[in-house]
From TrEMBL, chain A:
GO terms for molecular function: sarcosine oxidase activity. This is Sarcosine oxidase subunit delta. Pfam families: SoxD. It comes from Neorhizobium alkalisoli. InterPro entries: SoxD, SoxD_sf. GO terms for biological process: tetrahydrofolate metabolic process. It comes from the Bacteria. The lineage of its organism: Bacteria, Pseudomonadati, Pseudomonadota, Alphaproteobacteria, Hyphomicrobiales.
UniProtKB/TrEMBL annotation, chain B:
PANTHER family: FAD-DEPENDENT OXIDOREDUCTASE DOMAIN-CONTAINING PROTEIN 1, SARCOSINE DEHYDROGENASE-RELATED. Pfam families: DAO. Keywords: Cytoplasm, FAD, Flavoprotein, FMN, Nucleotide-binding, Oxidoreductase. One of its GO terms (molecular function) is nucleotide binding. It is found in: Cytoplasm. This is Sarcosine oxidase subunit beta. Its cofactor is FAD; FMN. Belongs to the SoxB family. Residues 35-79 form the Rhodanese domain. It comes from the Bacteria. The keyword Transmembrane helix does not apply.
Automatic annotation (TrEMBL), chain C:
GO terms for molecular function: sarcosine oxidase activity. InterPro entries: SoxG, SoxG_het, TrmE/GcvT-like. One of its GO terms (biological process) is sarcosine catabolic process. It comes from Neorhizobium alkalisoli. This is Sarcosine oxidase subunit gamma. It comes from the Bacteria. The lineage of its organism: Bacteria, Pseudomonadati, Pseudomonadota, Alphaproteobacteria, Hyphomicrobiales.
UniProtKB/TrEMBL annotation, chain D:
Residues 606-877 form the GCVT N-terminal domain. Residues 509-591 form the SoxA A3 domain. It comes from Neorhizobium alkalisoli. Gene3D superfamilies: 2Fe-2S iron-sulphur cluster binding domain, sarcosine oxidase, alpha subunit, N-terminal domain, BFD-like [2Fe-2S]-binding domain, FAD/NAD(P)-binding domain, Probable tRNA modification gtpase trme, domain 1. One of its GO terms (biological process) is tetrahydrofolate metabolic process. SUPFAM superfamilies: Aminomethyltransferase beta-barrel domain, FAD/NAD(P)-binding domain, Folate-binding domain. InterPro entries: 2Fe-2S-bd_N, BFD-like_2Fe2S-bd_dom_sf, FAD/NAD-bd_sf, FAD/NAD-binding_dom, GcvT/YgfZ/DmdA, GcvT/YgfZ_C, GcvT_C, GCVT_N. This is Sarcosine oxidase subunit alpha. Residues 897-982 form the Aminomethyltransferase C-terminal domain. Pfam families: Fer2_4, GCV_T, GCV_T_C, Pyr_redox_2, SO_alpha_A3. Belongs to the GcvT family. Residues 177-451 form the FAD/NAD(P)-binding domain.
Length: 101, 417, 186, 990
């Protein structure tokens, strides 16, 4: 069960309160009715599915209700950061591999 | 290859089983092959086997970053059925089921295909409408699937609770008697042994890191952790990692990789005779030959390559199982694990040519990969050998996402397992 | 409008008369309340606060009370405001003259009052949030999950909470709270 | 030796920590025994000299007690309180005895002593690892019909319970700063240190009391006996407000982001549990930091016939003696490769037990233990091995040979204690996704790279020295405390893999995994057959896959494989440790989520009134909806026929409260709806409503419903019952992320309103007296009007709308007023001859009018045009969600499936919903199917059946005859339009 920092509630909350909402920073084309079939397929279906750093959306559906963005490593499932919807893609530090103790 | 039989076992028993050969060899890679298949799961190994057996192509390498059969082939709940709704699905899963029926004999390896029946529980009018739609379509297509009353369902699975006071009472069930289970490791190992025997190289612990392309964009081979290996044709069958491998050739595929969890109980004496699934309460269960209750849990909501998932997925599955079978509340979970499923937007697979000459793809099997293994492998072999899809797999192309001609089993019938 | 009369409807609360709990937790249905879901942009918060007579809190997870009304921060532009019946919340909000959305949800929600030393433990039987006083002090509030239903939780005292829940989920919430109350007493 | 006579002949006076006067009686396989309170089933039976407790999985070999803890692979029993409270596969070494317990052995028939299944042991040459992959293939059907049932019957261990579980379980979420797993020396010390910082600490241990290895070890801490120090420390910790100490609690899973699952056994050790007490409690902990102090587990020696009852780990024998006061035999042999077993021998010797010999496979045991052994007069055979044992149901002798020598001698023993050294318990570390490294010097895996905020201390971290361990634990806790300790002996030694005594590989059974009967030769066979990865070996032999999950066997198996392969251990690999650490009861994981609390059953405000009127209900999503209202003697068919007739002829009252409702408010409300629905909304005037269709970007119908405009800036949107939450989520998604510039807000009001639909010719007459301040005549309030008004003194919303084709109203009143208004309306309706009707009649009436139900007549692949609703797709709008998806090639091609009506040639024939449609019923299979029946009913109003279907090119097939082939007959149908009743639509105006 993930622990997710909601940038609106400014607090870490259990994954149970959230719903994943797909890849982030995919803007709906302004001129959507004019794009080609290929462009539509790209917009609607194609996703990066990164192994490693991914930018994704979550909704704090059982909390403040806001959609927001997150940067997460899909290998470790670690969140590198979360930030509010509408902000551009944020640069993140490289995902740590863990440490020896 | 030494033939397996009860007589061979008896002979070996007399001499402490010293005479068995390795089931497959572990050769160093050649400089190049006619065909390279990326991914030594059941689909990849099977495709190599059928290329050798049915298409006369034996200069093949199956390249695997881990160990063969170690991905979803060895991590699933081994359910086999073919009672899907759309013709494209029925074609491929029924082709697969027919191959399952003779697979042990074909491979000379007991894959333990056990047609103990797959029963899908109906809990409400909507389920009933959907199941009958499937049953009728299956019947007209020549696939067995029948409607049972609650009492008939209980006759088939005596531990089923069909009381009207249940939170979601059962109002009937669909049963495919030819559906069932098989032994997952045996499928990978059986294909590996049979392919290896026909000269196929299985290269384990070798990670593909790039796909080299020629002047016309055609494939030339793969860069790997063991160096460059040339190939005229490349078939990618890498399940949850298909996005990653296809990206190396610059081809994007519409996939999400999600953790899918499963669990087994401690071993119990036989109590559960078949496979039971319920879409309404989201659970499926069977009992392995060792006596473990094998329970498929849900998919975690986010994409991940971590092969782990949240405890809440497990608990939500178990509460559904125990609601259907209250006698199991005192049973214990012995082991839980996760795999990575590769899911397409319409939850149906992609198998076909790609924009890159010589590159073929087989992915997106989601939760249906195991049951499809022989059929998918067989048709993938055809695709690679002929350069175009077999009639039975013609609808599984990438192009459907452009045209909108989806095969949306999920939309038609809740979650497809 | 609540007066009895031949042709005047009477009110039936979803958890009417229900109570329960254990030696350390008391569970009871709250009195009927008037509630609005209020949506306001940041620049209009002051105007709405003034009109309602209660400061709309802008810090996450906080609430404020005034003039018999309580406002809970739900989201960055969302509040749940409640008060006694016939307090006229929608009309008050309208007087602000500022852009907003006030939707009457008086009957959508019902509330369960949880009190006693075992309250937090009872709620934690189904709520994944940290309800220690440090993390969830008096006056803290949050929309969250309770078992399989959504609730809005408000801490009204060190050992007292108000659980707001949609009416059709109230039986479930009360049932699970009862289980939690029983376990909290052990 | 003289033991307490009633609690067992092997009870040693003065030994152990139980009170002799406090006894409990239980039965084992029907025979009654007396135990002492605090005994485990294992210690209680051993006290009576009972060693034979079970049969193995495959060969049905007699098995005893190997361990004293949760790693036990052999002694799995069936424990019951009563018939319903029966638990299979319980570890005798964990289960505490309670008065009245009924305990039985498993996996044997007819009895534990004479088990027919043990015939398998004689056939074992045939049953080599993986033999089943090589045979049972002929004839084809024989696997499922013949061989598999035999294998299944032989396999499995315990019997599943036969009755539903009457016990209940609890669950709690909890947060802490530091969770400490394990309360041995390391865990307790870390807890003291952590507690001193004032942080919130949870200390967890799986045993009934804290102490871990201090239960048996000769350790002195702070000048006190170690066990006593542990109890005093626990008491001190429990008294601190920031510390929680949980015993009988197992950390079974270490998941993502500091989330851990714990299971607490609350009543399984109590004779008469209180009725409010849960059997077990699930703790779901979110910890900021985790200190793993999980200790280590002793390994057995791998040699021939090392599985006989009476053979057990040395540390287990010590626990039974020092904690429970039970000697494991009269004449005990020792076979070891590690110093620790010597201490067990010393303790036993001092308690008066004869030590036959210490057989040490090493030629150089630790000096300290050697001299102590000499001092106690114990015979030590260093550089020797046990090459075999004998004894049918219990060990009677061991055969000892000098390493490399030939002359074997038999030594009589009634118990043999063994130790091959200790395996650090890195399970939780590994579950947390930490990476292990191989400690070559000590042949063990240790924590290396941490993936979460955790730290391993003590034996699980490979820290053997007590002073170092204490320092490590204090540092991990972060506080400053002083603890000092001393062990009597420092231990050396240890081995993994087959011991000398494993003998020639083909001749003997030297068990690696006891429960699954995996022997050293099975692992060697796997390697020979090409299994070179430990995962392959594990799966091929099933080593480590039994219910103990390889706690004893994994390292041995790995070492044997490594030797066979000639590869160092890290290259062969280590299988991953998966949760749970020990098996966890489903009931605990589920906790309250059962019965009424399994899934909330949502009921409308009028539910109780409807039930009182005799309603049958159906499940629609989470909702319970009134399905039909049978009168005395009516079946569903009769009731629905009557309701259908009455609504069309007089009127009916229907509970429509479950429909989703969303309040859309703001100056841009119409603009927003324009983007979310295919229809145009800016043209809708306040006071009017309109049927809307929502598509997603792909152009397929997602939801539908009537939308009323209450004011310029306020809409009352309705959705389907099942679609309400996802439609709101879909709208919020677009509003927040694609159209955030729009000034509009959304609020769910589904449950704010009770909705009472009144339909039929007398609908207006029925509601008229209750409506205040509104003219509801056809002229003033025509079809698709909406208004705010008072109903019975309550501010309400009145819709003029119809899902039946009749004159109709939907009265929305605030939900708490629903029952009163419903009652009043129903009383009047009844007096006018109208009826109550449920969802089934609603379905029939709407089908008679050709109104679709999204989710039944459409399935996520249907466009508005397919559904004949193209009129609802605005041609003027330049944008709405779905506008582009709708134009894709496959969505505009000819021959798509379209909704049409079907009339059976035989009017009495009612089609099956889900029936498939073909043009030529005589074609061979697989047939070409044109579509399917989506809705089908008997229409009492028409005196015939009606149906709606999706048919390829359907609208171009009007009048065509098609066929619906069923299993027993073929039904001919004619394609028609979808409106079966009142094609002109006049009835809607009454």
């Amino acid at each position: 069960m993930l622990l997710i920092h909601c940038p609106y509630c400014e607090e870490d909350r259990s994954e149970l309160e959230f719903r994943w909402a797909g890849e982030a920073h995919i803007a709906r084309p302004e001129n959507i009715s004019a794009i080609s079939d290929e462009e539509f397929a790209e917009f609607f279906f194609l996703r990066n599915n990164e192994k490693g750093l991914t930018y994704e959306r979550w909704r704090h559906i059982h909390g403040c209700g806001r959609f927001f963005n997150a940067a997460r490593d899909t290998i470790s499932d670690k969140f590198l950061m979360t930030y509010k919807a509408g902000l551009p893609k944020q640069p993140v530090p490289a995902s740590g591999e863990g440490e020896t103790r | 290859m030494r033939k397996y039989s009860v007589f061979a076992i008896a002979r070996e028993a007399m001499r402490a089983h010293k005479g068995w050969d390795a089931q497959w060899t572990s050769p160093e890679p050649r400089a190049s092959y006619d065909v390279i298949i990326v991914g030594a799961g059941g689909h990849g190994l099977g495709a190599a086997y059928y290329l050798a057996k049915e298409h006369g192509i034996t200069n093949i390498a199956v390249i695997e970053k881990g160990w063969l059969g170690g991905g979803n082939t060895g991590r699933n709940t081994t359910i086999i059925r073919s009672n899907y709704l759309y013709e494209e699905s029925m074609d491929i899963y029924e082709h697969s089921l027919k191959l399952w029926e003779g697979l042990s004999q074909d491979l000379n390896y007991n894959t333990m295909y056990s047609p103990r029946g797959v029963m899908m529980l109906s809990h409400n009018v909507h389920d009933q409408q959907s199941f009958k739609r499937h049953i009728n379509a299956n019947r007209l297509y020549g696939i067995d699937n029948e409607w049972l009353t609650p009492e008939q369902a209980k006759d088939f699975v005596p531990v089923l609770d069909i009381s009207k006071t249940a939170r979601y009472p059962i109002n009937g069930a669909a049963l495919q008697r030819r559906g069932g289970t098989a032994r997952h490791d045996a499928v990978a190992w059986g294909y590996a042994r049979a392919a290896s025997d026909r000269g196929v190289h299985i290269i384990q612990n070798c990670e593909v890191t790039g796909i080299r392309r020629g002047p016309n964009g055609e494939v030339q081979g793969v860069e790997t952790s063991k160096g460059f290996i040339g190939a005229k044709k490349i078939g990618v069958s890498a399940a949850g990692h298909s996005s990653v491998v296809m990206e190396m050739a610059g081809v994007r595929v519409p996939l999400h990789s999600n953790p899918l969890q499963a669990l087994v109980s401690e071993p119990l004496k036989p109590i559960f005779p078949c496979v039971v699934m319920s879409n309404t309460v989201h659970a499926y269960i069977s009992q392995s030959d060792k006596g473990e209750l094998v329970i498929g849990a849900g998919t975690d909501q986010y994409n991940s390559y971590s092969q782990t998932g949240g405890l809440q997925i497990i608990t939500h599955t178990l509460d559904a199982i125990c609601e259907l079978f209250p006698i199991f509340r005192r049973v214990k979970m012995m082991r839980q694990w996760g795999g990575i499923t590769d899911n397409t937007p319409d939850r149906s697979p992609i198998q076909g040519v790609t924009p890159v000459p010589g590159l073929f793809v087989n992915c997106g099997w989601g939760t249906g990969g195991f049951k499809a293994t022989p059929g998918s492998a067989n048709l993938f072999a055809h695709l690679i050998a002929k350069g175009e899809p077999h009639r039975l797999a013609a609808g599984l192309t990438l192009d459907r996402f452009r045209t909108g001609r989806l095969i949306d089993e999920a939309a038609a019938a809740a979650v497809a397992h | 409008m609540v007066d009895s009369g031949a042709n005047v409807a009477t009110r039936t609360l979803p958890l009417s008369g229900v109570h329960g709990g254990s030696s350390v937790v008391r569970l009871e249905a709250a009195a009927p309340a008037e509630r609005i879901n209020l949506r306001v942009r940041a620049e209009d918060v002051a105007a709405l606060s003034a009109a309602l007579g209660v400061d709309l809190p802008v810090k996450p997870k906080t609430s404020s009370s005034g003039n018999g009304r309580t406002a809970l921060w739900i989201g960055p532009d969302e509040w749940l405001v409640f008060g006694d019946v016939r307090t006229g919340l929608v009309a008050s909000a309208a007087k602000s003259g500022a852009l907003h959305s006030a939707t009457d949800v008086s009957h959508r929600n019902t509330a369960i009052l949880v009190s006693g030393p075992g309250s937090a433990a009872a709620i934690n039987t189904g709520c994944p949030q940290d309800l220690s006083l440090d993390a969830f002090p008096i006056g803290a509030c949050s929309r969250t999950l309770f078992g399989k239903v959504e609730i809005v939780l408000l801490r009204t005292a060190e050992d007292a909470f108000r659980v707001e829940v949609w009416r059709s989920f109230s039986d479930y919430a009360f049932g699970l709270l009862s289980e939690g109350a029983r376990d909290a007493a052990l | 030796m003289s033991g307490s006579s009633n609690s067992g002949a092997f009870r040693i006076k003065g030994a152990g920590r139980h009170t002799p006067a406090r006894t409990a009686r239980f039965t084992f396989d029907g025979k009654t025994y007396t135990a002492l309170e605090g005994d485990t089933v294992a210690s209680a039976l051993l006290a009576h000299g009972v060693h034979l407790l079970g049969r193995s999985f495959k060969y049905h070999r007699p098995r005893g007690i190997l361990t004293a803890g949760p790693e036990e692979p052999n002694a799995l029993l069936d424990v019951s309180r009563d018939a319903a409270r029966r638990q299979p596969n319980v570890r005798a070494t964990v289960q505490e005895v309670f008065d009245g317990a009924k305990i039985a052995s498993q996996n044997r028939w007819p009895s534990l002593k004479y088990d027919i299944g043990s015939f398998n042991d004689l056939l074992s040459p045939f049953f080599a690892a993986g033999f089943y992959y090589k045979t049972f293939m002929w004839p084809r059907e024989a696997w499922h019909k013949l061989y598999e049932p035999i294998i299944r019957r032989a396999a499995g261990l315990g019997e599943a319970p036969k009755e539903g579980d009457p016990d209940h379980y609890a669950s709690r979420y909890v947060h802490c700063d530091i969770l400490i797993a394990g309360a041995g020396v390391a865990g307790l010390t870390a807890a003291l240190s952590a507690a001193a910082t004032g942080k919130k600490v949870i200390l967890v241990d799986e045993q009934p009391e804290v102490g871990g290895a201090l239960h048996y070890a000769s350790t002195t801490i702070d000048g006190q006996d170690g066990y006593d120090w542990a109890q005093a420390t626990a008491a001190k910790l429990k008294a601190m407000p920031n510390v929680t100490v949980l015993t009988r609690t197992t950390v079974f899973g270490y998941y993502n982001h500091g989330f851990l699952g714990l299971t607490e056994r609350v009543t399984d050790h109590i004779a008469l549990p209180g009725k409010d007490s849960p059997r077990e409690r699930l703790w779901q902990v979110r910890a900021k930091k985790v200190i793993l102090a999980t200790g280590s587990i002793e390994r057995h020696m791998v040699f021939a016939n090392n599985d006989r009852p009476g053979i057990m780990l040395a540390s287990a024998a010590r626990s039974f003696l020092n904690h429970h006061g039970v000697a494991v035999g009269h004449s005990v042999g020792v076979y070891t490769a590690h110093d620790s077993a010597y201490e067990a021998a010393f303790d036993l010797k001092r308690a008066g037990v004869s030590i036959a010999a210490i057989v040490d496979s090493r030629s150089n045991p630790g000096e300290a233990v050697l001299s102590e052994a000499r001092a106690l007069g114990i015979d030590v055979l260093a550089g020797h091995s046990v090459k075999d044992t004998s004894g049918r149901l219990r060990i009677s002798s061991m055969t000892v040979v000098r390493n490399g020598g030939a002359n074997a001698r038999k030594i009589k023993v009634d118990a043999l204690i063994v130790s091959a050294g200790w395996t650090p318990s890195v399970h939780l570390f590994s579950q947390s996704r930490g990476k292990l490294r191989f400690d070559e010097a000590n042949q063990r895996f240790l924590p290396d790279v941490y993936a979460q905020n955790s730290i391993s201390v003590g034996a699980c971290n490979g820290t053997d020295d007590l002073a170092e361990l204490i320092d490590e634990a204090i540092a991990a806790g972060g506080g400053s405390v002083a603890v000092s300790g001393e062990n009597r002996f420092e231990w050396t030694g240890g081995m993994i893999g087959a011991a000398e005594g494993a003998g020639p590989e083909h001749a003997v059974k030297a068990f690696v995994d006891f429960q699954h009967d995996v022997t050293a030769k099975d692992i060697r066979l796997a390697v020979r057959e090409g299994m070179h990865s430990i995962e392959h070996i594990k799966r091929f032999t099933t080593n480590g896959m039994a219910s103990d999950q390889g706690k004893l066997s994994n390292m041995h198996g790995l070492a044997i494989a490594s030797e066979m392969l000639g590869k160092p251990i890290p290259q062969v690999g280590l299988t991953t440790f998966r949760a749970p650490y020990t098996p966890v009861t489903y009931g605990t994981l589920i906790a309250h989520s059962r019965g009424e609390l399994f899934d909330p059953a949502r009921k409308t405000p009028m539910h109780a009134l409807e039930a009182a009127e005799g309603a049958e209900f159906e499940d629609v999503g989470n909702w319970r909806r009134a399905w039909y209202f049978p009168k005395r003697g009516e079946d569903m068919h009769a009731a629905v026929n009557r309701e259908c007739k009455t609504v069309r002829e007089v009127g009916g009252v229907f509970d429509a409260s479950t429909l989703g409702k969303i309040e859309v408010v703001g100056p841009d409300a119409a603009a927003f709806l324009n983007l979310l629905y295919t229809n145009a909304w800016d043209t809708l005037k306040p006071g009017k409503s309109r049927y809307g269709i929502m598509t997603r970007e792909d152009g397929f119908i997602y939801d539908d419903g009537v939308v009323g405009r209450l004011a310029e800036d306020r809409f009352h949107v309705t959705t389907t019952t099942g679609g309400a939450p996802r439609v709101l989520n879909h709208m919020e998604d677009y509003l927040q992320t694609e159209f955030p510039h729009l000034k509009v807000w959304l609020t769910s009001t589904t449950e704010q309103w009770a909705v009472i639909a009144v339909q039929g010719p007398k609908a207006r007459e029925i509601i008229q007296p209750f409506v205040e301040g509104l003219d509801i005549s056809n002229e003033a309030f025509p079809h698709m009007s909406v208004a705010e008004c008072n109903v019975m003194g309550v501010p309400s919303r009145l819709f003029r709308m119809s899902f039946t084709g009749e004159l109709g109203f939907e009265v929305n009143v605030p939900a708490d007023f629903g029952p009163a208004v419903w009652k009043a309306i129903w009383e009047r309706a009844q007096s006018l001859g109208a009826c109550l009707y449920g969802t089934e009649t609603m379905h029939v009436l709407r089908a008679e009018k050709g109104y679709i139900i999204v989710g039944q007549d459409t399935d996520g692949t249907v466009t508005p045009d397919d559904a004949g609703l193209n009129w609802a797709v605005s041609k003027k709008k330049t944008d709405f969600v779905g506008i582009r998806g709708l134009k894709r090639p496959d969505l505009v091609r000819d021959g798509r499936k379209q909704l049409v009506g079907l009339l059976t040639k035989d009017p009495k024939e009612v089609l099956e919903e889900g029936g498939q449609i073909v043009a030529d019923p005589n074609q061979p299979k697989p047939m070409t199917m044109l579509g399917h029946v989506t809705s089908s009913y008997w229409s009492e109003n028409l005196g015939r059946s009606i149906a709606i279907a999706l048919v390829a090119g359907g609208r171009a097939r009007m009048g065509e005859t098609l066929y619906v082939p069923m299993a027993d007959k073929t039904i001919a149908v004619e394609v028609t339009d979808m409106v079966f009743v009142d094609k002109e639509g006049g009835r809607i105006n009454g």
